[in-house]
Specification:
By secondary structure, this protein is mainly α. It is 69% helix and 0% strand. Helix 3 (29-42) packs antiparallel against helix 4 (47-59). The protein starts with a helix and ends in a 9-residue tail after the last helix.
């Protein structure tokens, strides 16, 4: 249906984004990357297109391309914690551990709601980290240890 609508309105960036998302969800990353790359060419400042394209690239194992795309998206929207977490995955997978860890710390810094995403990033990367104690993970992420209530 989306492809038919896109045939009627080939310049519709929103339809291209929807089609790209559908391909990503159906694990057809090659088609997703083709559609989303075309959408990016039409609307290079759309962070929703950039992050969806970067996600397809990451899933495809094209970590350097995904990192570049995430950096572009973060240049437009620096407070996007999810994109920064995904950039951390890319950097770790490329062996840029220091950069990946720094990106991950900035994701978590001061945002306890991002703890699960930070933990997932550490666990998902083949070059991630493992901690035996929660206090070691908190120290790594730069969190202040919680004090027990009296």
């Amino acid at each position: 249906m989306i492809e038919q609508a896109l045939a009627l309105a080939p310049a519709s960036v929103d339809l291209q984004l929807d089609l790209g998302r559908m391909h990503v969800r159906n694990n057809n990353r090659a088609k997703a990357r083709t559609v989303l790359t075309a959408a990016r060419a039409i609307a290079p400042g759309r962070t929703d297109i950039l992050t969806e394209l970067a996600w397809a690239e990451l899933l495809d194992g094209a970590y350097a391309e995904a990192a570049d795309t995430y950096r572009h998206a973060l240049g437009l929207r620096p407070d996007d914690a999810l994109s920064r977490a995904n950039l951390a995955i890319c950097l770790m997978e490329m062996g840029e551990r220091d950069g990946g860890e720094a990106a991950l710390r900035s994701v978590y810094g001061g945002r306890p709601q991002m703890l699960s995403r930070a933990a997932l990033t550490l666990a998902a990367s083949s070059h991630g980290r493992f901690f035996f104690r929660p206090s070691a993970a908190a120290k790594f992420l730069g969190a202040r240890p919680e004090r027990p209530t009296p």
